[in-house]
Structures are given as structure tokens and as C-alpha cells.
Fold:
Amino acid sequence: MREMELSERKMKILQAVVRNYLETGEPVGSRTISKYTDLNLSSATIRNEMADLEEMGYIVQPHTSAGRIPSDAGYRLYVDTMMQDKERDVAELRDNLLEKEERLDQLLKQTAKLLATVTNYASMVSAPSIHQNKLKLIQLSRVNSDQLLAVIVVEGNVIKNTLLDVEEELDDETILKLNILLNTHLNGLSIEEINLKLITTLKAQAGIHSDIISNVIDAVAKAIHEEDDLEIYTSGTNNIFKYPELTDGTKASELIGTFEEKQALNELVVRSLAEDNGTGIQVYIGDESPVESMKDCSIVTATYDLGEGMKGTIGIIGPKRMDYDKVVDNLKDVMHQLDSIYKK
Amino acid sequence: MREMELSERKMKILQAVVRNYLETGEPVGSRTISKYTDLNLSSATIRNEMADLEEMGYIVQPHTSAGRIPSDAGYRLYVDTMMQDKERDVAELRDNLLEKEERLDQLLKQTAKLLATVTNYASMVSAPSIHQNKLKLIQLSRVNSDQLLAVIVVEGNVIKNTLLDVEEELDDETILKLNILLNTHLNGLSIEEINLKLITTLKAQAGIHSDIISNVIDAVAKAIHEEDDLEIYTSGTNNIFKYPELTDGTKASELIGTFEEKQALNELVVRSLAEDNGTGIQVYIGDESPVESMKDCSIVTATYDLGEGMKGTIGIIGPKRMDYDKVVDNLKDVMHQLDSIYKK
DNA sequence: ATTAGCACTCGATTTTGATGAGTGCTAACA
DNA sequence: TGTTAGCACTCATCAAAATCGAGTGCTAAT
Structure:
């Protein structure tokens, strides 16, 4: 028994167990499989095979004398080797999404909503990170006698505003000069390229207004990195109530908390971006989850790429018995749409 | 019995019922009241009085031979006439909040979080509406050969960005002229004051670039009204799991959905702002709720006023047996802090 | 290698009974 | 007349007991 290989038949049985459990959510018994599959075997035979599969760790019994349900390893095997492409019912999806919002945040919000509606699971969409982006425009304007408005535009047309306090009022001409100074030196540079030497040069040229330069640089750095910039949009979190296994005990509360905080979801985004294996799709089953409160869930993520280094993550969070085929399919589709939408 | 007046004694008993129920969440019986109150009466007497109170509709029995719990009317009477000021344990609160964020949205987010933590209920904070605000600055900059960036600053330092498409590239001088034109004519005006006549004048002066003027005006109007500007921050929605009466059946799901959508919460904001009675505090009990999914909740709202017409709503959503005294107190406190924080 | 048959297990559901908090009512009481 | 003691009654809650049935493992026959 030790060096047992996974026979064709066992595969088929495991697949049947998973499929059936995904549909019903109930432990599935030998008799059911016996009819469900095309291999004509009696329930007794199936029982023997299932006993083997259990020993190998692919399925478990919730209790003696109940059917079997897939273990995490079972799901994993299924996802890795047994998924099949579904008929895509995604035409409709494409239509809906195509009303291309000009505002990126709106588009992403809408994407999250759409995914949640289509899949009946919870969804999340992270705004793209813009780390390695290049500065496109810096614009200072006087707004009060003691405040300057700094508008910072980076590649990809992401816009940031910051208010700067200044001691003495600056006249129009000075502001104009500062603007020219900043733009001629900084435009086209990424944040990493703005080094100390450059800053020193700028300060020297700014003369008595060198402190403003410091402020602006700080603002730029802050605007680009800005922690809270990791906007994450969620939708359909209440879909988890459709799956009892996610709502008993305090699980529901914890999940909802996680979705509301959004802080923890960032972990998901980071992991997902880091582990990108080429397909852009990642599946986390149960304990594999990067987020503590989702140990009873499965998570499927996709990485989209708007070009110019703007990458983000979209994800679906549902029960372990989620419809992996469909979810992966939907996710791929949305991912490709996002990829292409800004490559006009 | 018909024209029975609410005797002093009945009031006291009702009050005791409410108080006790708020604490324990259990139906309260006559014997309990008999000891809980200072009026020395036997349980039998209390029973008679309670029967009266029930007939009058202030309390109800969940089932025969259980204690009584307050009806909506009972809560209402309590809130209107029987609340008392609590010892304020809010010093701590003040400290926490005072780390005055420079960014308004951050501050509001933090406020919501704080309220949720302190009260153990769900909270919401709406960003101030800025309808009647005056323009402070308009700034056009070229960002691409075919795109202009319009930055719009209104009183209260709320900043909006919009990208405008332009047909032919504009040179620096033209942009400068347009900026001057716009600012000299529009600064200090509220959106209502920008009428057709003014627009016509502007267009005439802009000559061949009159279409840009149209675009800018549109952008200004959009930026100020913008529907989705009704940002609403929520926090502690998972606190509802602490109150079983809010989580059985599909209630939890509906509530969570409402909080996530945020759309419906807007109704709350509008109502709350409209019905402001001077104190700034509003209490909605059960069916009085403006939001369908909160028919089993009580809602307490407060209206804050940052000055310059920037008003917003903060609210607490919890079970009907919420600690009204404390909630009102906390809310008042936070409201005042917000009121003063921007009146430096 | 497959299958029919059977005893067995155990969660889920229903049944039953005991408990006790709380009520309404009546009669006695100050 | 208002208050109170006493008592029968109701009914949710809990625990123990009984029942049910889906599903298993094992053995023996094919």
C-alpha cells in the first residue's frame, strides 16, 4: 500500500467526489459515486477505493459512517490536474464591463461588484501599485498666502495632491521659476532615480527657497509610496452567508472584519504579485491562505497589468468547495479585459 | 383604563424595564423590578402595573410566562423623556482623536473606527457635502500633447482633478492666459453663481479656445456635485455579531450588504441632515429607520459642521437595546470635536 | 478483482419528561 | 382602595432517551 500509485480509476473517483461535493456541499457516499461515474462499479468496490484514497490523504470522513469530503490535498490535486475548461458564459460579462469608466477607481469598484455577482463569492480588487513609475508633471500653485498646492502626476495619469505650508508668501514669478526648475530636473525620473546629489543640486539652484524643494520631494515620495494608497475594493462579502461552513462560530464575524479592515487583504495582494507563476492565476486552498481568517476558505487570485508597471490583484474568496473551474475562468476573463482596456 | 395617564410610578417601572433590558438583553420579570427599583412594591403589584403598561403598548411579552421587553414605543418614550447624562468616560476618546490628521478622509475613517471601538456598535461617517462651496482656484496644466489636467480647489481645501481631452496642442502661453481668464472670473464664486451669461462672456474672451472653457465648466460642475463624492466610511460592522437579535435568519447578511453598498446609507445621511432639530442628534428606533435592512436596529446620528457649509453625518447602528445614553454622549463629543477641529 | 450481504457506527431528528421563571387571578389584608 | 400573599397555569429551555437511516468495513461468494 505504501508505494501505491494513483490509478486512473482512483483519479476518476476522486474527481467525482470533488465534483459532487462542490455541487451539493454534502459528504458523498460510495453509492452516489457508483452511479455518478461512467465506470460501472458497485458501491462496494468504490468503498474499497475510497478507503485507499482516504489513507492517501485525499479525502476524509467528517465522522464514521458518513460519506467522504475532499481534504485540502484532494482539492489541490483536483485544481492542479483535473480542472477542465468550462463553457464560457462570459459573453454577458464582457458586455457589462465594457462601458469603460474613465475613472480607474470606479472601474475597479465595478469590476469587484461584477465578479461578486457573477460568482456568488466575495471579491476584492486592488488598485494598481505604482512603485516604479515615472514622474510626468509637478505643478505648484498658490492657494493661500501660506499654503501651496502641489499636484503630482505620474506615468499612467495617476494624480496626487498635497498641500504644503510655506512661511512667507511667494510671488507668481517665484512659483513659476520653481515649477520650471522642478519639471526640468525631475520629469521622466522614477522615485529611485531621485538621489541625494540631484536634490542637492536642486536646492542650490532654488537659493533661499531650498526648503520648499525639500517639502516637494518629500511630498513626491509620500505621494508615490503612500501606504494608504493601497486602495482595495471589495464586494459581495455577504455572499459568505450562502455557505454555512463559513458562518458558524465566529468565522463570519472574522471574515467580515477582515474585509472591512482591508489591511490584511494587502498581504494577499503582495503574495499574489510575488508568486506570479506566469499564468497570472494563483489558487490558495484552506491553510495555504496568506490571511489567517481565511483558513477555511479558498482564494483564487489573478494579476492584471495595465502596462507601465501598474500591476494589481483581483481575487475571489469563497468556501473550499468553490467552483474552481468557473472562478478561474471568470477571473482570467476579467484579467484580460483589464489588461487590454488601457492599451488603447 | 382607556384614558389612563402615565403615573409617576408607571414611568419608573417602564424605565426600570428598559434599563434592565438594555443591560441583560433578557426579558425582565416583575420580581426583578420589585428589587431593582427604590419604590418598595411587591412583585404582584408590579405585575399589575406591567399588565397596564403592556396594554398601553410600551412593553411586550415575547411569549406567555416570560418577562417583558420594551416595545418600540417604550424605547421611544425612554429616549424622549427618561435618558440621563452619563458620567463621561470620554477623556480617553478625546486624546485618541486629537492626533489631527491633515487629510480629511483619513480623519473621518479614523473617527468611524474610534466610534465603533468605543461603542461596540457599527458606525458610519459621511464625508461633508460641499454643495454651496466657493471656488478657490482653477489650474490647467498640459500633461500630454492631447490632454490637459484641470485641478479645482474649493473653499475648505477640497481638491479635485480631472483630465480633459483637447484636440490640438496648446502652447504654454495659451494655457497661462486661460488660467488667468478662468481665475479672474470664477474665483470666489459658488457653483450657483456661475450662470449662462458669465459662461458666454468667458467663451467670447477665450476666442478659438471657447470649447475648452465649456469643458472646464463641466468639469467644475461635475467635480462639485459628483454623486460618488458621497464618500461614506464605515467601521465595526462585524460588531453586529455581538447581538444575536441582529444576526438570526438573513438579517446579518442584509445588514452587511447595506454597509458594503453604502448606497442605502446615503438615505440616512440625507434624512439626518434634513431633520436636524437643533441639537444635531437624531434617534431612529426600529421601524423608524430610513433604511429597510435596519428595521430591527436603532440608529443614532449626529450632524457635524466644519464651517463654510461643509456638513456631514456620523451615525451609530446597533440593536434596539443599545445604550442610548452612552451612544448619544459619545456622538455629541465626537461631533463637537469635529466641529472645532477645523476652526483653528 | 468484483460484488452481495450484513452487522455496526454515529450524526441527526424526534420524543419525552423535568425544571423553573414568570404570569394572571383571587382572596385576604391594611 | 391600593397592596400583597398564594396558587394554578403556561411555556421556553434543557437533557436524556428513543428512533432513524445513510454509509461504512468486513467477509464470503462469484
